[in-house]
Fold:
Amino acid sequence: MSVDVEKIIQCIQQGDQDRVQIQLDDYNTEYAQCFFINMEERERKKQRELDEFRRNKVRDHVPDSDSADEDGENPELILRRRLAEALICFIRTRLQPGVLGVCLRTLRILSRDRQALAPLITDLAILTLTRLGGISTPHMFHQDEKEEKEKEESASTNDTRMSFESQSDPCIEEDVAGKRSSCCELDGAEGIQGVLERGKKDTREEGDEDGGEWYDDGEVWRKEAVKVLCNIIYNSQRAQERASVLRLLPGLSKKLKDGICSGSPTSGQFYDLRLLFLLTALRPELRRQLQQERGVSMLSAALEQCLEVRWADVYEVVTEPTSPPVGREVSQRAIEILKVLFNITYSVHRQQPDEEDAALYRRLAAVLRHCLLLSCESEELTDELQGQTINVLSALPLQCLDVLVSTRLSESSKESAGVNMDCVHHLLLFMERKVDRGHKLKERLTPVLNLLTESCRAHKETRHYLRQQILPPLRDVALRPEQGDALRNKLVRLMTHVDTELKHCAAELLFVLCKENVSRFVKYTGYGNAAGLLAARGLLCGRSSSPQPQYSSDSDSDTEEYRQAKDRINLVTGRVEEPQPDPMEGMTEEEKEAEAVRLMAMFNRLSRDKIIEAMSLTPDGRLEPLCGRMRNSTLQEEEEEEDADSNDLD
Structure:
């Protein structure tokens, strides 16, 4: 290390705030972009695991963090742990504004190191950072501790050295030399409030992690403390468990509610939302708790405030097509809100909401419709905002999504049978962009495909509009359905994707657009592409024994080009095939019989080696192994013969 960490720790123990600030500034500058990953040790560990796997053919459990690496005696790692421990003690005393800021920034850098988290995941450390982050919890320190500390400080105002005295609940760690140290008491509410007194706004961008000057602004320190908490919660399972036990969620919710009620959210709200997202994503009980404490209502209000929503009607938001793009900071806050909303609503679509919840979800759906129509400063942010919006929409009850198409038409609106299709059009454009990019198809496409499919089932206008855009009247039958750049061709290609869920979602959308008519579905996709969905739904025989959904009676008229080529279309490939020569032409009957015997022998060998399995079609349109059916048929025949023999004896 070019920075002497041992010297920094000594300065902290001496309480020399000026020297601590100077040396930590150097430390932060050097390690601003460092994540303390020991690549050599990681490669050695991977090689050991590979060798072990080759010997035993069993892969051992891989820990969820780097804390289990076998470099616990690394001197640099030990120094980072000692520095983190000393800083936790240091920030619990009265510090100058600049010193407190630089200490928190150093802790944020150290909290990236999963191996050095031990001093940061104690209850005392978590509560200290929680208090500095402006989050109140039931476990905050008592008033008598505050008064006792203030008396001690008033008695030693001229003492420039910090005294590390023992306390009733010390945070003690054993250092390398075997010495023991204990943390000082955290200042009471009045002391902390004096340090974190509200000043001028933080002028940095949300994404500016390391630049800028430390102002005398309590909001800057609150934000930095929450950043440290985010790193700790993300990197440590124990910290996640302790955060749940220490009840960080109610305090965090209260802080967000206070920001909503004040009408002017702080610049640090983004990191509060990020912390709320991590807690609800990593702890299932916190998801349920936030939902039960009307978290959907709170987050909906936060989203409305963030986007400055104006209402034209009960469930209609005013959307100005000429409004400027949404700023980066606002976009990021809205995205975090949507991520938390999805965490607590992902299973709501399976439930039947009561009248009050239905009204809440409809209002939220109206705001989400507004999100879909917004544009941000960058295309990346616009895509992220729309993607998170679609995730939440796919989680809401279907009957509450009628507000997406119930808004009034404008001159520039897309429409179908007099119904506003602007929202559906944006969903369609989003889906096509994701198909074209081909990156993380399952994560990006599955929600929007499911949402469009269910919307088509519920609203005939939506289905009619999407059918015009995706399955226009068929004219060119010279190409296979999966060939070409039209949206239909792209979706048909997805029907044979390696991911089972993705190909099922794509096939389901096309099937619903065909009103679940097998012959129409085969017409647009080809029997080869359609076979997977038809087999899964028991429709290989062209009909189903289960009741089918009722669709409107709009016709599927064939074009003149399709009618002329219809008799020459190969139903398996879905296109007109060139005439093929007869492979049996010129063969005698004996040669044909010999060829048939040879083919049968090949099929038998493949079946015997379990390479293929002969299947047959059941009366209900499903596939079953042919050998099982033949065995059942043989047993039935034997039983009939036995019954006949017994009747003859009688």
